[in-house]
Structure formats: structure tokens, C-alpha cells
TrEMBL record:
This is Adenosylmethionine-8-amino-7-oxononanoate aminotransferase. Pathway: Cofactor biosynthesis; biotin biosynthesis; 7,8-diaminononanoate from 8-amino-7-oxononanoate (SAM route): step 1/1. Belongs to the class-III pyridoxal-phosphate-dependent aminotransferase family. BioA subfamily. The keyword Nucleus does not apply. Homodimer. It is found in: Cytoplasm. It is an enzyme of class 2 (transferase). Substrate binds at residues 52, 139, 258, 287, 370. The gene is bioA.
Length: 403
């Protein structure tokens, strides 16, 4: 990739969460296979991010490649309004069987699946209730409905206050009597339309972990007060925390995405219980153009099919053990916490990280990481072997030291 192309990138392309023009030049990728990214200059990097947590099987997996190629020979796309196709039906069957939920609305991104979940919940109240409960530290996407249930102060969307719907935020989830009392008091004080949270792991809002008891309390209170519980498992679904889903069995509405297609293309899904769907009079007012795109759905069938034999469980447990090496970072000055759960490893600093320096340090160790806020973290593909997990740990510790 020559300098002219990189200059076009710098002046024409707006990269995520960055200024225009870009302050830092992105690394040009020429190809990817297994768990490695090959850069245009020939360097190879172990992908410690699974391309923002979705490439759980690595790159160029022969089963998913074959599924997409086969579907391409049939049809690349057909509208889902008034039409249907077998891959979508088969995927809906699998997702409902796996989760115990009844209905599937296919969306084209995780943020849109959250939008659909919010619309579903609000429509079920026929305008009688509009306010949702969530908790601090959450992240649910970058569209307006999703931004409104992200952390309003510590999140990425504080600049939009005044333009977003106003919802109610419980304290950061922690299983203490004080926290439980605070959440109960909010239910007593408000007539919520529903509750939406990320179960067990909060993702881009801070990579925090919380006990299952926090989610169970929400389930119990939702039952007591007659409101639906929406669980956003876009980041945690499909094995990332060590179980197939973090808490799907507690949900009335479930949002899935990211790993759904194994990182091949964008697809998400909003699932719900039949009892909730029955409360929606008339159509659910949403319909993405690329809803249930046959290529994406075929990739998802192949990706989820690779999980059916359960072999991923041993891989995630193995990765969790390997990521224990991150605890060596506790000896570094400025490290506040180190935590590991499933195939997630986090080093948290006591100050905002120098992302450029931390990324450079990881790349020098042959690893791609994407530090942000006060975190150096990794969510590698499940097929990453022990040697590469050790390399990721060394790179993350180096990044924390440099940041």
C-alpha cells in the first residue's frame, strides 16, 4: 500500500471514534488468516481483539468461507419484506432453541438490535410508559436510542445530553445490600417501561464484571413490577464469558450480534418472548433494508454451527487460564486492577491511557490491541493457541507500561 493510498485514507475516510483528518495513521492490513493480520509491509500481528470481539473462529475459516461461497451462488440478497428464505428460518430456529425465546427480529448491527428492543418494549405499553431503567457504566451502541441508555456521564455520549431520551440510571452494579436497596427504591419510585443492561460483563463502557446476582435481582424485580427485562448480549453472547450466553435464560428480550457471523459481515438479532410480542398491536415499526441478508445469515449459520459440539468451552477455559499471566501487570506503577473472565482479559490503569504509546508497544511485541479510556484489554479468537495467548499477555503488559 503506497503513500498515495494512505494519504487518501487520511483525507477522505473518517475512522471510528476519531477526528477528521485522522490524528494517527491506521495500520494497513493486506490479509488475515487464522489469528494473524498481515500488514502491507509484511509484518504479522496476532489479533488480540478478534476484530472488536466478533472473529471468534479466526479469519478465513474454511467452513464459514464455504457457506458464504455456496450462498453467493444462490443469491447475495433479497428483501425480507414479504419474502423469506431458508437460511433465515434455520438461523431463527437455532437461536430460539438455544435461548428459549420465541421470536427473532433480524437487524443489521448491534446498535440497531438495541433500537428494535427499545421500540418493542415501548410499543408493548401503547404509549403509557416511556422510561427505561439501566445502570451506570453501560454501553449499548451509537445510535440515538442506544446512546440514551449508555452511561450519561462517564460514557462516550455525554455531548448528546439534551438531545436524547431521558432514562433512569441505577448505580454501577455490585452485589451489596446498599446497591440492592438503591435498585429496589428506583422500582418503587418509577413506572418503568422496561429494564436494559449488559449481563455479567459491561463492555465498551469500562470492561467491568459483576455478579450474576445483580442480574437475578433485576429479573425478580421485573417480575414483581410487571416490566420486561432486556439483556444486551452483543458482546457476551456465543461463549465469550465461558458459557454460551451470559444470562439469556433471564431475558424477556435478548440482543445478539458481533460473534453471530464469526466476524464475516454485519448481522444482529433481537429475540423476545411470545407473551411480550402479543402485547404489540400491529406491526413492529422497524425494517432494515438488509434485514436477514442471505450471505450474512449463511455465515451466521456456519459460525454458530461451529459452536454446536461444545469444543469452544475447553478453548475458552484454556484461554482464561492463559490470560492469568496478565496478573503480572499488578507490579507495574499505575495499574489499578487486573481481571480475567472467560476469553476476556483486562488491565485497568489509574489514569487515562496514552493509546498511541500503548498500541505501539503491543505492535512491537507482534500483537494488535486497541487500548482505550484507562484500559488495555484483550478478547482474542477462541482458536488462539497457548503460545499466542502468552504473547498477547506480554504485549498487553508492555502496553500498560508504556501507557
Amino acid at each position: 500500500m503506497n503513500a498515495d493510498l494512505l494519504e487518501l485514507d487520511r483525507t477522505r475516510i473518517w475512522h471510528p471514534y476519531g477526528p477528521m483528518p485522522a490524528a494517527q495513521a491506521p495500520l494497513p492490513v493486506a490479509s488475515a488468516e487464522g489469528v494473524r493480520l498481515t500488514l502491507a509491509d509484511g509484518r504479522e500481528l496476532v489479533d488480540g481483539m478478534a476484530s472488536w470481539w466478533c472473529a471468534i473462529h479466526g479469519y478465513r475459516h474454511p467452513v464459514i468461507d464455504a457457506a458464504v461461497q455456496d450462498q453467493l451462488g444462490r443469491m447475495a440478497h433479497v428483501m425480507f419484506g414479504g419474502l423469506t428464505h431458508e437460511p433465515a428460518i434455520r438461523l431463527a430456529e437455532r437461536l430460539t432453541d438455544w435461548t428459549g425465546l420465541d421470536h427473532v427480529f433480524f437487524a443489521d448491527s448491534g446498535s440497531v438490535s438495541v433500537e428494535v428492543a427499545i421500540k418493542l418494549v415501548l410499543q408493548s405499553w401503547h404509549g403509557e410508559r416511556r422510561q427505561l431503567l439501566t445502570w451506570r457504566g453501560g454501553y449499548h451502541g451509537d445510535t440515538f436510542g442506544a446512546m440514551a441508555v449508555c452511561d450519561p456521564d462517564g460514557g462516550m455520549h455525554s455531548m448528546w445530553q439534551g438531545s436524547l431520551a431521558e432514562h433512569v440510571f441505577a448505580p454501577l452494579p455490585e452485589w451489596t445490600p446498599e446497591w440492592e436497596s438503591a435498585v429496589r427504591a428506583l422500582f418503587e419510585a418509577h413506572d418503568f417501561a422496561g429494564v436494559i443492561v449488559e449481563p455479567i460483563v459491561q463492555g465498551a463502557g469500562g470492561m467491568r464484571f459483576h455478579p450474576r446476582e445483580c442480574v437475578q435481582l433485576l429479573r425478580d424485580l421485573c417480575d414483581e413490577y410487571g416490566v420486561p427485562l432486556v439483556l444486551d448480549e452483543i458482546a457476551t453472547g456465543f461463549g465469550r464469558t465461558g458459557t454460551l450466553f451470559a444470562a439469556a435464560e433471564l431475558a424477556d428480550v435478548l440482543c445478539l450480534g458481533k460473534a453471530l457471523t464469526g466476524g464475516y459481515m454485519t448481522l444482529a438479532a433481537t429475540l423476545c418472548r411470545a407473551e411480550l410480542a402479543a402485547k404489540v398491536d400491529g406491526p413492529l415499526m422497524h425494517g432494515p433494508t438488509f434485514m436477514a441478508n442471505p450471505l450474512a445469515v449463511s455465515a451466521a449459520l456456519a459460525s454458530t454451527g461451529l459452536l454446536q459440539d461444545g469444543a469452544w468451552e475447553a478453548d475458552v477455559a484454556r484461554i482464561e487460564r492463559g490470560l492469568g499471566a496478565l496478573h503480572d501487570a499488578r507490579e507495574l506503577p499505575g495499574v489499578k486492577d487486573v481481571r480475567v473472565k472467560g476469553a476476556i482479559g483486562v488491565i485497568q490503569l489509574d489514569h487515562p491511557i496514552d493509546g498511541v504509546a500503548a498500541t505501539r508497544a503491543a505492535v512491537e511485541h507482534g500483537v494488535w490491541l486497541r487500548p482505550f479510556r484507562d484500559l488495555v484489554y484483550t478478547m482474542p479468537p477462541y482458536v488462539t493457541d497457548d503460545d499466542d495467548i502468552a504473547r498477547i499477555c506480554r504485549a498487553a503488559i508492555a502496553g500498560a507500561a508504556a501507557g
